[in-house]
Request: fold
Amino acid sequence: MSQAIIQVQSATKIYEGRTILDAICLDVFAGETLVIMGGSGSGKSTMLRLMIGNVLCDGGDIVAFGKSLRKMTPDERDNYRKSVGVLFQSGALFNSMSVAENVALPLREHTDLPEQTIEIMVKIKLELVGLRQHADKMPAMLSGGMKKRAGLARAIALDPKVLFYDEPSAGLDPVTSAEIDQLIMDLNKKLGVTSVVVTHEMDSAFRIGDRMVLLDRGKFIASGTPKEMHDSTDPLVHQFVFGLAQGPLTDRRRADGYEEDLLGYEHG
Amino acid sequence: MNTVLRPIVLIYSSIAEVFRFLGELTYLVGDAVAGVRRSLFRKQGRRLGWSNLWAQMDRVGVRSIPIVALVLFCIGAILALQMAPILRDYGAQDRVADIIAIAIGRELGPLVSAIVLTGFAGASIAAELGTMVVSEEIEALRANAIDPIYFLVVPRMLSTTIMMICICMVGDTSGVIGGMATADAFVGLSPTLYRHHTFDALKLKDFVTGLVKAGVFGLLISAIACRLGLGVTGGAQGVGVATTRTVVLTIVALIAVDLLFTAVFFYLGL
Reply:
C-alpha cells in the first residue's frame, strides 16, 4: 500500500462540553478515494473540517504531509490549505461573483499569474467539470448540480493534491448524483488526486470509494474496502450499509426515555 | 435562584457581556490593521484588492450621499428657524449662522451622517456577512487559504471610514446651505452676511475635530457590523437578529463615543 499522506491520530473534538469526535484514528493513502460514512450527527463533517485545518483538534492530532496541523504556524496552515481543495455541501460559491470569478479567485489571491493565463486556466477547470458555457452566470442562476460542479472547479483551481468532498450528492436527483460521482472518479483519474468523501448516500459511497470508514456518534466503528463493509457481520455496519429500519441504530433511538418523558417520571 | 441575587447576577453578566464584546471589537480592528499591513507586503497574489475597495466605497458611501445631504439640509433649516426668534429677542439674529456652523461642524454633521450610514451601510454589511456565514462562504474562504479579515473586513472598514469622512464634509456643507437658505428666506439674513459669520465662527479646529469624529464613527460602524455579521449563528433568523442588533448597538455606541469625544475636547480646550 502507498504511504499515508494524512494521518488522523486519536483526534478528539469537543463543542460546548459535548464530545463530537472521540479519539478517531484513520489514515488517508495517496491516490485512494476514502469515503467517511455516518448518519446525521455522527461527526463526519467535523472530521472533514479537522482534516482541512479549518478547525483544530482538542485532543490527538492530524498529521498532513508529515506535519502536525496543530503545530503548524498560520502561514504553514495556509500553505497546506493551498495544497488541498474542498467541495462544500452547498457548493459555497461566492454569490457576488460569477462562476468564472469564483474559480479565478484562488488563482488571483495566491499566484502572480497574468490575467490572460488565469482566464485560460479558469476555462480549463470549467471544461473539466462541464461548465465552460456557464462561466459568466451568477451562482443564483445555477441548479444544485451545477453549483456543486462550479464549487468543484474552484476546488481544483490550484491543482490540489487532496480533494475533500462534503456530501457531494446531498439534495441532488439520482441522475445528477450519479453524474457528480462520475465526475469525482474522472477527476481522480485525470488529476491523480487523493479524495476524501464524506457522505451517507450508500449508492454513491460504493460507486466511488476505494476504502470506507464508518463513524457513529463521534466514534470510529469500522473501516474496510467496499466489499468488506458490504459483507460485514457487525450489526451496526450491516444496518447502515443496507439502510435497514431494524437494528442497533434504531433500537437506540427507541430506548431514549420516551416513556418517561411522556409520563413525566423517572425510573428509580 | 435567590430573588435578591438574581438582579445582581443579571447586572454582572450584562457588564461582562459588554466587556467581552468590546474586547472582540478591539481584536477585530487589530486584526484588520495587521491585515492591511500584511496584504500590502504580500509576496504573491493581489495587494489589498483595490477593485473590491472601490466597490465597497461606492456601495457604502456614494449611494448614501443624497440622503445625508437632504437630512442635514433640513437640520440646518430647522436650527435656523428654532434659533432665530430667541436670538432676535437679544438683537443677535445674525448669530444664527455662527450657531449653525459650530453645531453642524462639530456635532450634528458627524453624528447625523453616522446614524444615516448605520442604517445604510452597517445593516447591509452585517446582513451580507451573516448570509455568507450561513451559506458556508466564509468557511470556503478559509479553506482556500484566504483570510476573511483581509478579504472582507479590511475593505469594508477602510471604505466606511474613508467615506464617512467624505460624507461628513458633504453633510456639513449641506447643513450650512440649509441654514443659509432658511435664514435668507425667513430671518432676513443675507447670504453674504451669513457666509461672513460662518467663516468667522468656524475655526479650522472645529472642522478638523468634526472630521476626526467622523473617521472614528466610520470605523465603529464597520467594526460592529463586521463583528456581528461574522458571528451569525442559527441560519436566516440569526442574520435578522444580527442586522437589528447592528443598528441598535451602533447608534448607542455612536452617541456614547460622541459624548466621550466631546468631554475630551472640552477638557483639552479644543
